[in-house]
Amino acid sequence: MSSFTISQALDMHLHLRDGDMLNLVGPLTSKTFSGALVMPNLVPPITTKDALLSYKQRIKEACKDDDFEPYVTLFFQNNYSYEFLEDIKDEIIAIKLYPAGITTNSETGVASMDVEVLRPTLESMSKLGIPLCIHGETNGFVMDREKEFMPIYESIASAFPDLKIIMEHITTKDAIELLDKYDNLYATVTLHHLLITLDDVAGGMLQPHLFCKPIAKRPEDRSALLNAALKAHPKLMFGSDSAPHPKHKKECCGCAAGVFTAPIALQVLTQLFNDNNCLENLNKFISLNAQKIYGIKPPKKDIKLIQKEFIVPSSYEYKNEQVVPMYAGETLTWSIEE
Ligand code: DOR
Ligand code: ZN
Prior knowledge:
By secondary structure, this protein is α/β, with parallel strands linked by helices. The chain is built from twelve helices and 15 strands. It has a single domain, classed as Metal-dependent hydrolases (TIM Barrel, Alpha-Beta Barrel). Helix content is 35%, strand content 17%. The site of (4S)-2,6-dioxohexahydropyrimidine-4-carboxylic acid has 10 residues, from loops.
């Protein structure tokens, strides 16, 4: 096929940051996507209604030239009251739970993943129908962190059968298998975890722009993720986890975690689904599954992808900073029709 149309593209896991960075990266998503679930791990994280509404406003301002819906989230805290959640419910799409210290700006996440400790907030969320997004990693050995988290997903899924739980950015065969065990478990998967393994990150020269949390895993994990995405498993959604950091925080000693994929996501996904003869499933993976799972109706927007070379910019600039995308300087075989 030499062209393909993506309708109402949704990125169900996106980091838009704030300030100048937001003004740069916001439009790189809003130009082509109809909506995105925006992560709350700012400094400080989004934990109040005021902070939430003003962040949503700043996103809208940054993306004002485009028909784009930012679906904003709240940063999970153990002490949210039922009344607080009831009041904020219509403003948010979900609440994101981070184990404390597990990734970028998660220091004030939860100290314990014990269901009894989390029960008060989870019970309110379940009653109010607020979905729970989880960064599912323990602080065990880096390659086993997601696998070790599986029993925690199981304990929450069985304790709260009415709570929609989204396993964010899954990276393992174990997580794919768990998806079918509980009706209330769903997942997002990133573009980079469909493409790379740990070998691409650290098998040769260290590649800081491919370093992220959770770290890319084994070939058999990538195959399981790719198979599920290509067949558009109905409980799996695209969530880029595009996580921009300034170049000096990536190309340094103590590299920040995050792969910046927003500007290449649609082109590379089209290439990937086309190469695997699965283009007919791409609109489900990138939009329809999420619309059903979250019950959302994103703005109508059709984006035409054409089989034409696209050279990925070596970086995107703002103020005195640069942000380096995945595949910087490389040539893709699909591009977005202007
Ligand atoms: O690699 C990551 N970067 N993983 C996350 O979970 C957070 C993200 C970020 O915010 O930079
Ligand atoms: Zn993330």
